[in-house]
Amino acid sequence: MAHQGYKVGIDIGGTNTIAGIVNGRGECIGKAGFLTQTCTSVDDFAAKLAGAITGLLEEWVPGKAVGGIGVASPAARQREGTIQGPANLRWNSINIVSLLKTHFDVPIVVTNDSNAAAIGEMKYGAARGMRNFVVLTIGTGLGAGIVIDGRLLHGENGVAGELGHMTIEPGGRLCGCRRRGCVETYVSATGIRRTAAELMARSTEESELRSIPFTKLTADKIYEAARRGDPIAREAFEVTGKILGRVLSNTAAVFDPEAIILSGGLMNAGDLMMEPTIRSFDDNVLALNNKKSSIVRSHLNDGEAAILGASFLVGEAAEPQRQETPSSVKVGSGKAYQVK
Amino acid sequence: MAHQGYKVGIDIGGTNTIAGIVNGRGECIGKAGFLTQTCTSVDDFAAKLAGAITGLLEEWVPGKAVGGIGVASPAARQREGTIQGPANLRWNSINIVSLLKTHFDVPIVVTNDSNAAAIGEMKYGAARGMRNFVVLTIGTGLGAGIVIDGRLLHGENGVAGELGHMTIEPGGRLCGCRRRGCVETYVSATGIRRTAAELMARSTEESELRSIPFTKLTADKIYEAARRGDPIAREAFEVTGKILGRVLSNTAAVFDPEAIILSGGLMNAGDLMMEPTIRSFDDNVLALNNKKSSIVRSHLNDGEAAILGASFLVGEAAEPQRQETPSSVKVGSGKAYQVK
């Protein structure tokens, strides 16, 4: 049963915050956004977000009723309606639901971005009909939404699924979490920048990246350079894919999923990321898992899985807090969904 | 509802095969076993196992009816009743249920040893009443039984939970699975032997272990030497615990469990293993998981969790094969268990 009418889905990322209008068929018909990190305060962020939503509504659905607003964010606490000091964002805590309620008198829900992306893929994307899958969102950081037997993995305290903070290189790069060698210090938009810097330090090869200061070196610039054949930029994708392939082989060993779906800004690099990743996965996968888990790129646009998943959630009965009654999203034939 | 009467539970390990008589209260009242690897053939193994069971029955429950035999083994296929070429055992495939049926006319079931251990801990051990926990069995290899929201994690093809084959040291030790750096090449009875050999190679320190050939160097001998203060042996436990602590911090990040329960032969070393493990876990745990997942040593005797879990299973309705209908073990208040 698809939800009816229009809803708003919002994806708060470490780099961009994007709001989308979603129609009754789960299509994102219009989007607007702004740079998350340019916000100087919580109030500034809330004002920009409300402005983006208002602009969207006026442009795409003037005078029409909207069924609700679903917000996907790192470090979301669904029951409290808050976002609690996420590592990649600058504020300590926001009651995002209250802030938006002052502008919009509709049902509003906030949920973990990785779980929203998993719901989006399950409902409208590459995971339709699957019961066991993992969605990795590789943007500023690396998030994972994990579905087991049709249910989201939450864990005992609602903080399961931190694949971005598995140690992939013992004693390796310092992470925002204060530990070393976490997956997301390598496999993310910020990770590939560190890899490019490391490669420039190690080799003497010429590269257009050498004229860009570290703080201005983005995954987009590395991608553009790689497409022009820049050897350091190409090698940065090689190295990142090699590590991601190892992460995927570990993920397959642990979860035995039908598929691992790759999404997020870094995956916009397409084959530049996919080719070395698949090669490394094939080299590293346990014989037991071989040919069983497929590695696929999300066919939804960047951030759209989370927008769709969050907008889907707001139409359902309010999900109770994980700590007490773990929420569950069940998938039967691929059509019936139940969110308790 | 405890099952009634006596049953037999069997734990087939890479080193020892142990059969136990389990009473209606889930107590293992008698055990008998033999060295798995001394068996020259499948027939020899079956004969030794049947002999051990017969001896047990005659000694402990002469003339009494037995409710069934539950077998826990690596690489078990429950529906087929077979064990399929496990990495640490010498044979290719055994139809263990048929072989035992020629000797004993009772219900017989074979199940994965790690899952049996998880059921044993949930029903009679350290995980009573828990809904989210992980049981690591650290013996010849390292197996994991993972329970999420009261259900065993099986995965899409029934091969999930291979924590022993996560890569913990990229490019590290060669594993039986033909990959490098797997957890079980470090954290296992065979892993600590390799660690001791490595330490002897690196240092010039005197050690009683230097007079023991590699093939005769067992975890037991390293334990005995460590208790006598041997520096290489002590360091071998230090190194093993340090790596296990890292594995546990990754496991907590992924599953957010209420507890991780450590069992298996290597854990017989008690504080020699637990102390460096807990220290390393505390050093490496993600802030998000800190103080949330407890690390506890199983209080059941070595192999007993699997024996109890397997014997529990045989009393229940036959579990369908995982591939088609994932079996589920549900725990409600800590009293009601349902095995479909």
Written description of the protein model:
- The structure is a homodimer of 340-residue chains.
- Chain A has 340 residues and is α/β, with parallel strands linked by helices.
- The first copy, chain A, has 2 domains: 6-119 and 302-324, 2-Layer Sandwich (Nucleotidyltransferase, domain 5), CATH 3.30.420; 129-297, Nucleotidyltransferase, domain 5.
- Chain A contains 8 helices and 15 strands.
- Chain A has helices at 42-60, 96-101, 113-124, 189-202, 219-227, 231-255, 271-284, 304-315; strands at 6-12, 16-22, 28-35, 66-73, 76-77, 82-84, 93-94, 108-112, 133-138, 142-148, 151-152, 259-263, 294-297, 329-331, 337-339.
- Chain A has a 5-stranded mixed sheet with strand order 3-2-1-4-8. In chain A, strands 11-10-9-12-13 form a 5-stranded mixed sheet, with helices on both faces.
- In chain A, strand 12 (259-263), helix 7 and strand 13 form a beta-alpha-beta unit.
- In chain A, helix 5 crosses helix 6 (231-255).
- The model of chain A is unreliable at 317-340 (pLDDT under 50).
- Chains A and B meet through helix 6 of A and helix 6 of B.
